[in-house]
Amino acid sequence: MTSTSSKNGDVKDGAGSEFLAFTLGSEEYGIDILKVQEIRGYEVVTRIANAPEFIKGVINLRGIIIPVVDMRIKFNLGTPVYDQFTVVIILNIGGRIMGVVVDSVSDVTTLTPEQIKPAPEMGTAFGSDYLVGLGTVDERMLILIDIDKLMSSGEMGLIEKLAA
Questions:
Q1: Phi, psi for 79 (deg, rounded to 5)
Q2: At 19, phi and psi to the nearest 5?
């Protein structure tokens, strides 16, 4: 496997990349801040019959019906709890708007290429295809997700049908 900095074109220049840090259970994850359109409090979603469990349903975002994925269910991290910290991160991926439910959002972290280590090869709940790597800042570790790849994977193709 090549280094993650060459795999992820926007990390090469040494200036660092910004990641929105969020939590799922006891783990911290990071996604490219440029994919984030907005962050909203969790609101009740409209369920869609026969949708996979990780697709919570759809919400009306200023007249646009968008699908909402619960990342805790998607990554098989136990039963989600919806409280005052639960948020929906609204993403814009290739012109498609969608939401992901996470336990909480902590901050925006800038990581230099040296702070991003390749993801170890192991059988994870989601294929390592979706991992950019592990970002380390002091004692903190962020699991960096390629949200484009994750949201455009085969099983997520259903999202396109729901949003249509």
A1: -75, 125
A2: -125, 135
8 Å CB contact between 19 and 142: yes
Q: Measured at the alpha carbon of residue 141, what is the angle toward residues 140 and 146, in degrees to the nearest 5?
A: 145
Contact 47, 57 (CB under 8 A): yes
| pTM confidence score | 0.82
Token digits of residue 30: 């990071």
Q: How far apart are CA 88 and CA 102, in angstroms?
A: 6
Q: Report d(CA 129, CA 149) in Å as an integer.
A: 8
| pLDDT digits 0-9 by tens, 93-103 | 988 899 999 99
CB atoms closer than 10 angstroms to residue 51:
16
Cα 140 to its chain centre, rounded Å, is 18
**Residue with structure tokens 């990780």?**
54
Query: Which of these, 98, 87, 84, lies nearest to 37 by C-alpha position?
Result: 98
